[in-house]
Amino acid sequence: MTERVDAILDAAENRIRRAGYNGFSFREIATDVGIKSASVHYHFPTKADLAAAVAKRYRERFEEAVAKNEAAGAGRVETWKTLFRDSLAEDNRMCLCGILAAEKEGVPEVVADEARQFFEMGVSSIAEVSKDNAENSLAYGLNILATLEGAMLLAQSMGDNTLFDLATANLK
Amino acid sequence: MTERVDAILDAAENRIRRAGYNGFSFREIATDVGIKSASVHYHFPTKADLAAAVAKRYRERFEEAVAKNEAAGAGRVETWKTLFRDSLAEDNRMCLCGILAAEKEGVPEVVADEARQFFEMGVSSIAEVSKDNAENSLAYGLNILATLEGAMLLAQSMGDNTLFDLATANLK
DNA sequence: AATCACCTACCTATCAGTTGATAGCTGACA
DNA sequence: TGTCAGCTATCAACTGATAGGTAGGTGATT
Description:
homodimer, mainly alpha, Tetracycline Repressor, domain 2, 9 helices, 0% strand, DNA-binding, Homeodomain-like_sf (chains A, B), DNA-binding (chains A, B)
């Protein structure tokens, strides 16, 4: 039952992470999955519904992955860095929410809001491990996450994933 | 002669910085400028031509602005930070090339290449003021530019431009 | 056991609107 | 007379979305 839905979400996530919200169509997703575009509409009535579902799943999976890596003994910042680097190395894929945030005014509000929630989760996840006061912790979380997002952007654009490591080498 | 061309480039830059390459059309640009879409094609035969010209002008203007601010006595990093913050404050506008880089696989190669050139210019501009060896200077330039780009992304997505200042407060 | 209503998960066919792009015309100006 | 900078009109392709059909399954009623 959910397996087709997952396949649709997988295809949509892949396409969005490559070309953004306005860079994919229902017909492309349908072709990827092996069904017709009307069937994609059956599971996700509108394009906004589909993209929002993709972003929501992305955020939830990320939270789980952070918890899992940390349970394995990695520090919080190292965990975030590793997760981003892995997805970059795996298939040159940027952070989904980074792309959605970049083209913010061109995506439905419900989608931009999911991206916003991802960043809020990320900033507070990283800020949490700072022993400083509230404002300095916030600044710390923002600084780390901003650097990671920007490093993915630069590495992708300049076509060299090792630049991600160089750009983030001093983070701790 | 060039005044209409400039108006077209202005409109295209504004639209791309809000919704990306796939988030604008010739008809929208034409409406913004007050002409017909066929007239936009007269000046820029294809969409790729137009977007590449926008990105090229953006890079050149940025280089000039950096030189000008520095002549006025500001440090290199402070200059880059100020230029990005100003464009964010002015009209919630992200870095043009940050957006084009994010949706890289969805834009024509000639456009992605202009974005790449912007980042190469930026990284070496910032790396230049480092007194360290080649690799460390590169890492320094990458780190600063990545943080600035990511800070714009976060501030825009979270709807609060002061977050840009918080995220970049420790850069020097 | 057989009929019935209902559901899920697809399908075909089609819609109006938008897209980038082209051909060919017009008027202004040198 | 050309060239420039617009224009009208049109194109095929693609877009998100909808209507309506169908095959197969579930579960209750008869």
